[in-house]
Structures are given as C-alpha cells and as structure tokens.
C-alpha cells in the first residue's frame, strides 16, 4: 500500500468533562484537525472498520492492517503519547479492533470547591488536560502540543443564579522538513471562550463580575493576556454605562460606579502594563459616554451617587479625559471637588476632592486660572492642615502641578495666598512623597525671579537640599505608584526651565527628577521624549557645571538615555586646570574669549583672583557691559565653590552665616593669610580693605560685626533685656512625632505676622549649635510642642544629652515666655524630671485641637500678647501642673498689629483629646496613619 494510507488513523483522548471525547485525525503527514462530539455518537463514528489506537504497557509491536503499508523513510515502530501530568510514555499500538460495547476513558481528576453561607451558595470546578505528540525521522519532524482547561462556577443568591463558564484551549504544531537545505514552518493557535449566564437582573450580573484576571496580571504576563483584559473590560465598561443610562436613579447606580472604580484601580496597579491598561480603559469610558454621565451625576442631589461618580472621576482624569472635562463641564467637576473637601468628617471625601484638583491643575494655564477662580486653590490649602497621608500627597502634587502649569499669573496668585508658607509643613512631613512634591513646587516657584524674595521668606527652600542628598532617584521611583509610571511629556517640558535656574536648590531637584524619569522612560522604551522636549542640552549644561549634586544626577540621566556625558567641572574651583577654566568660560557664554584664557594659562587659582583690570587689559574684555556680565558669573562661581582644600578654619562657613553674598570674599581672605580663627579675630577693617580687597564698606562693617560676635561668644547674649529680643517665637519639638504640629504652628503664626524659628536640621548629639542657642536667647516666646512621650528622654537626663532638655534650660535661662502646646500629652511627675527644667510643669498650656486650629492659634496669639493672664482658663486653656509658680505672658511681640476676629471653620482630623484616635502611630511617628 502506498503511503500515506487511504484509511485514517484516529487518536482518542478523553476530554475533561463528562460525556465528551475529543477525536484527533491524522491523515498522512498533514496537520491535525480536531473536533469534539458526545460519547453517544462515538459508536456511529467507529462502526466502519478503522485503525483504532489502544494503549498498552507492553513493548511496541506492529500489527498490519489490511494491505501492506510502507513509507519512503524509516519509521520507528510504535508511537508514544503523554497525557496530563504523567511522566511515563504510553506505547500506542495500531490494531484492528471491533467497536467496544463501552469505552473506558481515563479522565483527569477534577478540582471542586463548595461554599455556603446564609442565602449565598457557591460551587466551583476546574479541569485541565495536556497532550503532546511527536513524530521524528531523518528528514521529517512533526510535533503537536495541546492544552485545555475548563472552569465552571455557580453562585446562588436570594435574587437568582449566576453561572460563569470559561473554556480555553491552546494548541501548537511545529512541522519541519529537510531537503537540500533547511525549511522550517511553525503554526500556533489559541482559543478562549467564556460564558456568563444569569437569571437575575443585568445590574447584578455587572456587580458579580469577577476581577480575578486583573489581579493575576503581572510584569511577566504576555501581551495576549493584557490584550484580552483590555477587550474584556472595555466591553464591561460599555455594558455597565449603557445599563446606568437606562437605570435613571436606580439604587444600584452607586454600587455599579464603585465596581467600575475597582476595575480602574486594579488596572492602574498592574505592574509594567498598568499605564497602557488604565489609559485604554479611560479612553473606552469616555468613548462610551461614561465620562459625560459621571459629570451629570456630579450635579445630582443623591449624595451617594455624587460621591461614587466623583470617586470614579478621580481615577479617570487622563490627558484626553481632562481635556473633555474642561470643555464640557469644568465648573461641575471643580464644584464637586470643593464639596468633597468640605465634608469634614470623611477622609475618603477629602482624598477624592484633592485628587480631582491635582489632576485638573495638570491641564493648561487657562484651566489653572479657572480652577483657582472657582475656589480650587483655597479648598486645597485648607486641606494642607489635615494629617491624612493620601490627602496630603494629593495636596503636594496639586501645588506642584499648579506651579508648573499655572504660569506667572497663577504663581502670583499662589504668593498672595501664602502658598510657600503652606508648603513648609508639607516639605517638613515625614512621608517622602509629600515632602518631594512640596519641595518640587517650591523650587519651581523660586525659579521665577519676580517672586523669589517672597519664596525665600517662607524658609521652605531650605528643606530641598536634605531631601536630594538623602535619596536615590531609582529607588524613589519605585516607592509609590503615583510616579511609578512617570510624568507626561508636557509636565516634563514645563520642568526643563528649572534646570537653568540660578538657585542651586532648584537645579538640584530638577536634575534629581530628570534622573528618576530617565530610568522610568528607559524601562518603557520612551527615551526619545527628552530630545523632543529639549531637555538633553539643558541636562548636558547641568552635568558639566561645578554643582556637585546637580551635575551628578544630570550625568546619570544622560547615561540612562544613551547620551554623551560632557566634561565634568569639579566644585573645588581652586584646583581647576587651565582646560577646566576654558570649559567654564565656554559654558557661561564667552566662547570668543576662551582662547585668551587658554593662552594666558588661567587656572582655578588665578580665576578666583582676577580683577577688572585683568579682564580688560589681559583677557581683552574691553566692553564694560560684557565685563559686568562676566563678573556676575564669576561671583556666582565663588558662591558655589568648595574651598575645603585650603579652608581648614571654615572661613567660608563664617562668611556664609553672615549672608550668601559674603562667600565671594573667602578666597581673598585665604590668600591674604587669614587661615585660622585667631587671625580672623585679630583682623582690622583697614586690612580687609587693603589686603583682602573688600571695597564695599558696608560689607566690611558686617564682617567686623560678625568677628566681634565671634570674639565675645554668647556672654553678652545672656544679659540682653527682653526688649532687645529680635525674634518673636522659637518652636521646640520632638522630631519623632512633633514635626507636623511644629510646622503647622510656624505657618499659622507667620500668617499672623510673627517671626518664627524652627530648627529643621538636628545636629548630632553633643554638638548643640551656638546659632540655635542664640536663636532661643533672642526669642520673646518659646513654644514647647509636647506630643506623646515628648519628655520621656528628659527623665534622668542629668548630663543634658537630650536636645529638648537643652532647649528648655536655655529658654528658662534666657527668660523667654514659655508656652507649652500639648497634643495628647500627659506631664510626668515633676520629681521625675531634672531639677533644671521642672518649672516647665507649672506653666499654662494651650491644648491643641486639630479640628479647631484657627481657634487654638487665636488663643495662643492672645496669650502671647498678654491679653490672657494666669487666671484665664477656658475650654482651650488648661491649667497644667502645680498651683504655684505660674508665669504670666510677657511683652507682646507686635503690639501695633491689629487684626479682625478670625472666622472659624471646622475640619476633620484625629482629635487629640477624644481618646478615640491619634495622628501618631504606635511608634510615635506623626501623620503616618490613615484616618
């Protein structure tokens, strides 16, 4: 008989459900075909004589069929088949057999589960099967693999029965021939089907849809799984929205919106594919009319429907959806966001309201102006007082977005509303994400020269450097989902000008962010975005500048996106070579004079000593305006230069304490021989003029004044009268759990016209800073923030090793008006405290109530001004300690300041005095727990 045979060879394999068998038919060397049929039909299929395959454990033998079969190539006798998880190959014998009266099919074990609780009953079953077949000769190879699974779930509720079935089959066929060369072809097929039946209502079918497949998606999932999820949930959104449009005020509408919100949250949270999945579903929601429906619900009287709509909206405000909202209903959305923030007893409402505002401030300058006009910024600033982590994250992100997108006009509006001051408690927070975006907002604002002075007054900019130097961009990118996917192209484009800011803090944080974004975009395969927004050249400029922090992050960003890193200039300018000087001259825009510097072999030492005469006569800068421009750049260089290679006595630190502008004289003093503190104390004003070339007489006076203070030490400060005190308030706090309250007090008092000092950088133990002690001595009022266990370390501290202990003793010695601010705090017994600080237990104190911050600060202000005496004690004033030794408030700090009575607005937080909650966690960390 010629090959292939005329008769067909059938392989029977059990299908993992009752009553079904699968038949595979092999005709010669052609590809397999497959179909399923009920067992009842098998007899009819096999009634005619055919070659049926049966299994046997014995050695393979050939049983001839009718006629003689031969093949044009050697054929191994027998075939081997593997079913399920069995590792033993089963020989398959070819033999003529009659149709058996009963077919005994080997079925894989089923997995079944049953759950019953009350009127809810759920049954689930799973079956899986796997088949592999391979035929190999010298010139021919054919392999087929098949896998099938079936899952069935039935849920019985009081409203009806919900059935869900899923079938999936996967088969692949690889066919290879060899004849005078190599030819290989491969085909694969994947089929999946799911069926859902329910005899209940359509709403219940929507609500009972399982979201397990979204939970199972991960970074290693294949693209087909993601595409199936996109198709499934795009269809789900379409069905859900059409159902909502027909319902019209149905009671299930909020539940369906919450279910859609769960879908969106899970989609965004998928690793690697989350951005694509979430973005596609947001577009699908808009295209099916869902976004319009949500905006309409924002104006409905049903509070639950309104909040469910706002909650879903907060998850869906992508770039296109923001544009749709701005065009079709911005006022509705801003209004519902403001309504959510005024819901003082709900943290969830605050999170949703601030989240919506965060997205809306990321659209355009015009939109930012509209949102500010509609009250969005005012609502946002009030939320900055709260202690919920997620709410404050939204606040910090929203203010960063407004500073980037708002333009100069809205930045002016931010200054009028004292936004830099409100950024201080955010940048001072213990949560890194809150701190980061608050720092980002303040650096963007300080880059605007028109408002730089107001920004510097807030003191917030000083919190940027500690963050940048203590964090790693790549690790920070993974710390929170909010920035795990990176920022948009427009957002990054608005940040590019900050790289060119003259403020070192602004350049540092901008470079930090671009370094973080470079890693994210590299992982996404989207590094071209940096060239498109013009960031590459700016990064190269920063990478080559003598700013150690900014240049490091900029160079790292360039390496991540595959760009060349330029020549790096060290911050130790005195050690520069002539080539370094030439490179710096080119960077500051004096390319035509770079050759003159090179010909004169000007190195770093000579560069710092250049005079105007040198520039005019030796370098050839005859144009007076150009010389002023060059001198301005040279002075900037002197301010940022690192002089540690020569400055062993820290002369530069002394000058910087007088003011940043005084550091330009550091190298002049060092070259004149002022290299020790003794020589600094003995210098005269004439020597500053003649030897050190300090021609500014006012600067000479300030330096001499600083030298006298250094010479006298702190002796004179202890004898100063209270009327000579120049600082209104010094705030002392325990870093572990008092920083948030301390920073809030600082903002509240500054807004009322008081000058406030708060130590933002604690030094190591044993290095009690003289400047800190001087600040206490110059302060009229000493606010002691007492949070839980704030004085615990003071107990038994006879050697004054504790910071708070030292500050209290210094305040008592300086005669400050000490006012404890107690927040969930109980004083220890006076005898437990060291004798030098026991008086603190006898002072009147203000109990801090987070829900009534304005009222608390108003009482504090009256206390500081002397309007309340030792006999005054009401709901907010508490007598603390013993009945003797009261201290009446001292002289008001600003008697000319007259203020209208403030309007009080209740806000939600964990009430310190309620005993039901606290804004501290079990470890005493402030603001780290969710409400």
Automatic annotation (TrEMBL):
Signal peptide: none annotated. It catalyses: NAD(+) + H2O = ADP-D-ribose + nicotinamide + H(+). This is ADP-ribosyl cyclase/cyclic ADP-ribose hydrolase. Residues 169-179 have a biased composition (Low complexity). Belongs to the SARM1 family. The keyword Hydrolase applies. SMART domains: SAM, TIR. Keywords: Cytoplasm, Hydrolase, Immunity, Innate immunity, NAD, Repeat. It comes from the Eukaryota. PANTHER family: NAD(+) HYDROLASE SARM1, SARM1. The keyword NAD applies. Residues 725-868 form the TIR domain. Coiled coil: none annotated. It comes from Aromia moschata. GO terms for cellular component: cell body; cytoplasm; dendrite. InterPro entries: ARM-like, ARM-type_fold, SAM, SAM/pointed_sf, SARM1, TIR_dom, Toll_tir_struct_dom_sf. Residues 576-640 form the SAM domain. It holds the Pfam family SAM_2. GO terms for molecular function: NAD+ nucleosidase activity; NAD+ nucleosidase activity, cyclic ADP-ribose generating; signaling adaptor activity. Residues 140-180, 883-931 are annotated as: Disordered. Residues 142-162, 890-907 have a biased composition (Polar residues). It is found in: Cytoplasm. It is an enzyme of class 3 (hydrolase). Its EC number is 3.2.2.6. GO terms for biological process: innate immune response; NAD+ catabolic process; negative regulation of MyD88-independent toll-like receptor signaling pathway; response to axon injury; signal transduction. PROSITE patterns: SAM_DOMAIN (PS50105), TIR (PS50104). Its main location: cytoplasm.
């Amino acid at each position: 008989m010629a090959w292939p045979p005329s008769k067909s060879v059938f392989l029977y394999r059990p299908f993992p459900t009752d009553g079904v068998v699968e038949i595979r038919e092999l005709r010669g060397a052609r590809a397999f075909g497959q179909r399923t049929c009920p067992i009842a039909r098998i007899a009819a299929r096999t009634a005619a004589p055919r070659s049926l395959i049966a299994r046997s454990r014995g050695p393979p033998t050939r049983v001839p069929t009718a006629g003689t079969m031969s093949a044009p190539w050697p054929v191994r006798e027998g075939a081997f088949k593997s079913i399920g998880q069995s590792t033993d190959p089963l020989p398959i014998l070819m033999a003529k057999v009659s149709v058996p009266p009963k077919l005994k099919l080997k079925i894989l074990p089923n997995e079944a589960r049953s759950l019953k609780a009350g009127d809810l009953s759920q049954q689930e079953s799973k079956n899986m099967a796997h088949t592999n077949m391979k035929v190999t000769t010298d010139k021919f190879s054919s392999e087929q693999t098949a896998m099938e699974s079936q899952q069935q779930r039935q849920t019985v509720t009081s409203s009806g029965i919900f059935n869900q079935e899923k079938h999936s089959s996967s088969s692949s066929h690889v066919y290879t021939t060899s004849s005078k060369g190599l030819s290989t072809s491969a085909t694969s097929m994947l089929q999946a089907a799911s069926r859902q039946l329910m005899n209940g209502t359509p709403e219940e079918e929507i609500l009972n849809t399982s979201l397990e497949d979204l939970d199972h998606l991960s970074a290693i999932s294949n693209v087909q799984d993601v595409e199936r999820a996109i198709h499934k949930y795009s269809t789900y959104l379409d069905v859900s929205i059409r159902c909502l449009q027909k319902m019209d005020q149905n009671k299930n509408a909020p539940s369906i919106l919450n279910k859609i919100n769960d879908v969106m949250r899970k989609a965004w949270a998928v690793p690697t594919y989350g951005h694509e999945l979430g973005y596609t579903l947001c577009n699908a929601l808009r295209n099916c009319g869902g976004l319009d429906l949500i905006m309409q619900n924002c104006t409905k009287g049903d509070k639950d429907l309104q909040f469910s709509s706002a909650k879903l909206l907060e998850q869906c405000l992508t770039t296109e959806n923001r544009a749709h909202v701005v065009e079709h209903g911005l006022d509705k959305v801003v209004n519902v966001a403001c309504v959510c923030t005024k819901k003082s007893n709900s943290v969830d409402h605050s999170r949703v309201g601030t989240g919506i505002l965060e997205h809306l401030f990321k659209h355009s300058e015009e939109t930012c102006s509209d949102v500010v006009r509609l009250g969005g910024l005012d609502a946002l600033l009030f939320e900055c007082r709260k202690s919920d982590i997620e709410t404050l994250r939204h606040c910090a992100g929203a203010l960063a977005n407004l500073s980037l997108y708002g333009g100069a006009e809205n930045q002016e509006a931010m200054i009028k509303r004292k936004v830099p001051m409100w950024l201080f408690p955010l940048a001072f927070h213990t949560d890194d994400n809150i701190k980061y975006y608050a720092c980002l907002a303040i650096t963007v604002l300080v880059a605007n020269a028109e408002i730089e002075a107001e920004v510097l007054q807030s003191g917030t900019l000083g919190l940027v450097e500690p963050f940048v130097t203590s964090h790693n961009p790549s690790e920070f990118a993974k710390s929170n989902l909010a920035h795990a996917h990176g920022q948009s192209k427009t957002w990054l484009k608005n940040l590019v000008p900050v790289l060119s800011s003259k403020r070192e803090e602004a350049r540092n944080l901008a470079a930090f962010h671009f370094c973080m974004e470079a890693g994210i975009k590299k992982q996404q395969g989207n590094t071209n975005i940096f060239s498109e927004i013009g960031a590459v050249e700016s990064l190269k400029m920063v990478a080559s500048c003598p700013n150690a922090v900014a240049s490091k992050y900029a160079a790292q960003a360039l390496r991540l996106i595959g760009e060349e890193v330029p020549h790096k200039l060290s911050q130790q300018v005195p050690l520069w070579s002539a080539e370094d000087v030439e490179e710096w001259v080119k960077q500051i825009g004096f390319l035509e004079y770079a050759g003159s510097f090179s010909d004169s072999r000007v190195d770093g030492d000579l560069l710092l000593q250049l005079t105007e005469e040198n520039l005019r006569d030796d370098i050839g800068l005859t144009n007076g305006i150009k010389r002023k421009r060059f001198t301005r750049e040279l002075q900037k260089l002197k301010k940022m230069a690192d002089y540690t290679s020569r400055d062993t006595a820290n002369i530069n630190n002394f000058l910087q304490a007088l003011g940043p502008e005084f550091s330009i004289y550091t190298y002049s003093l060092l070259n004149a021989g002022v290299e020790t503190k003794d020589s600094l104390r003995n210098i005269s004003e004439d020597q500053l003029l003649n030897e050190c070339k300090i021609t500014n007489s006012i600067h000479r006076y300030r330096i001499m004044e600083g030298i006298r203070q250094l010479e006298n030490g702190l002796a004179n400060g202890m004898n100063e009268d209270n009327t000579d005190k120049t600082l209104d308030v010094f705030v002392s706090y325990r870093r572990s759990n008092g920083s948030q309250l301390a920073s809030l007090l600082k903002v509240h008092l500054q807004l009322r016209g008081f000058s406030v000092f708060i130590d933002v950088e604690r030094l190591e133990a044993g290095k009690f800073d003289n400047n800190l002690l001087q600040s206490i001595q110059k302060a009229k009022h000493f606010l002691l923030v007492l949070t839980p266990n704030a004085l615990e370390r003071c107990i038994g501290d006879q050697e004054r090793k504790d910071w708070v202990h030292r500050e209290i003793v210094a305040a008592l010695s300086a005669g400050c008006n000490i006012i404890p601010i107690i927040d969930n705090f109980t004083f220890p017994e006076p005898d437990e405290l060291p004798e030098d600080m026991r008086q603190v237990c006898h002072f009147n104190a203000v109990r801090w109530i987070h829900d009534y911050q304005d009222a608390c600060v108003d009482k504090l202000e009256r206390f500081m001004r002397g309007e309340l005496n030792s006999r005054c004690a009401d709901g907010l004033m508490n007598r603390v300690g013993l009945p003797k030794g009261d201290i009446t408030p001292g002289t008001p700090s600003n008697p000319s300041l007259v203020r209208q009575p403030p309007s009080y607005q209740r806000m939600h937080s964990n009430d310190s005095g309620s005993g039901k909650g606290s804004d501290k966690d079990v470890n005493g960390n402030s603001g780290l727990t969710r409400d």
